[in-house]
Amino acid sequence: MLSDAFYSALARSILAGDASVDSIAARMTRTLGRNWRWIKLLARRYVAQFGSQVHPRRRDVVVFLKTDQGLRNAEHRAQRQLKIAQWIQEPNRMRPAEAARTWPVPKIETIGELADWLEISAAELEWFADLRRMCTRPRNAQVEGPMGHYHYRVLAKQGSGIRLIESPKPRLKELQRHILAGILEAVPIQNAVHGFVKGRSIKTFAAPHVGRRIVLRIDLKDFFAIISGSRVQAFFRTAGYPEAVADRLGGICSNAAPRALWNALGKGLDTLAMADARAMYSWQHLPQGAPTSPMLANLCFYRADCRLSGLAEAAGATYTRYADDLAFSGDAQFERSVERFGARAAAIVTEEGFIVHHRKTRVMRRGVRQYLAGIVVNERVNIVRSDFDGLKAILTNCVRHGPESQNREEHPAFRSHLDGRIGFVESVNPAKGARLRAIFNRIQWP
């Protein structure tokens, strides 16, 4: 029976260079010291298994080798003649996927280089990446104790479900911002994406759908939490970073929430919803609240965006996305096939590992109010009337009775909350925004 060391050495030789069949076969021949006839056949099976994927992890290659029937048969025929003649070390060098070769990301090939690039020590790098999940082990898992890197806030969603806001502590947030500015913002974004992209906004997201005969809106469920830490690490390997570097970049940008926080922060919430949230957030995922999460979510959804754009083009429709809001619109041709189109779009989303919030899917024809992410698009981009009237009433009551009387949801920074809502209106309809701003400026703040 072949040893783990044998499989590890063979996996290292496979991953030590070009992924073509001939190159892999040549390296395995050097490793084994003999040009066995089955080696090239094994290389072909490897390329068939991993050729279309991102640079695989060594452990995945080991699993492939251990389960390959051809290698088992070769072992049986060789009768203990298979052995390691030469160890070939997997190089620590940038190896981007073909689509990523033009990305202007910084060259970081070792853990030491990553620590230097982040301007921290090697020990600090391991602490912040937390690949061993020391911060979430039961004996260390305090809600916001010194072992943790995040502050947590549990919110009940409208209707049902629970959202966990995970805000990184200042030092980790600084590292995440460095990764965002130095790596993530250098990666091209798909043209249909308008959320969290410089030069684009919720207004540019909605504008292509103004005045269309029919609008289809699809929402995604748990958009950030559904993106696993391993998927984030796979993105960094796609960018070309060696496995050890990609794992630590992914560790800094993802989080697994300690189970203890639900006992401390989940009082009064639905028990079943809490159980679902605990199961979802306890795995490594993109934290909602980290500065890197929106851009990483966009990048992890890239292939789905490409597929949905192609589907829309084939149906004579327009596609845009703002975070977890997907919008499609068209005229008579699209209207005739919108039901089948919606089913196919949902299937693509599911195939890419995401979840459609079917209860929020809407087909909106011209005779009804067509709205996307709180913006009406029937004739022009505008604010929903009820939202404008509600905010205007809150501001007026703040002037009359004081802002404390209107902070019913107990926002910790109520002034900033109102200022942000007014800013949103100003970005969509400047005239209405100016009216709200005039009322806001009359509020007497304590």
Plain-language structure description:
This protein is an alpha+beta fold and 446 residues long. Helix content is 47%, strand content 9%. It has helices spanning 4-14, 21-32, 38-50, 58-67, 69-78, 111-118, 122-129, 170-182, 202-206, 229-238, 243-253, 260-265, 271-281, 293-300, 302-314, 332-336, 338-351, 385-401, 414-428, 430-440; strands at 150-156, 162-168, 214-219, 318-322, 325-330, 362-365, 371-372, 375-376, 382-383. The strands form 3 sheets. The protein has a 4-stranded antiparallel beta sheet with strand order 4-5-3-6. A 3-stranded antiparallel beta sheet has the order 7-8-9. Strands 1-2 form a two-stranded antiparallel sheet. Helix 7 (122-129) packs across helix 11. The model has no long low-confidence stretch (mean pLDDT 91).
Number of helices: 20
Q: Which stretches of 5+ consecutive residues score pLDDT under 50?
A: none
How many runs of DSSP E, i.e. beta strands?
A: 9
Q: Helices and strands, in N-to-C order?
A: HHHHHHHEEHHEHHHHHHEEHHEEEEHHH
Main attributes of the structure:
four-stranded antiparallel beta sheet, alpha+beta, 446 residues, three-stranded antiparallel beta sheet, 20 helices, globular
In a few lines, what is going on in this structure?
The protein is of the alpha+beta class. The protein has helices spanning 4-14, 21-32, 38-50, 58-67, 69-78, 111-118, 122-129, 170-182, 202-206, 229-238, 243-253, 260-265, 271-281, 293-300, 302-314, 332-336, 338-351, 385-401, 414-428, 430-440, and strands spanning 150-156, 162-168, 214-219, 318-322, 325-330, 362-365, 371-372, 375-376, 382-383.
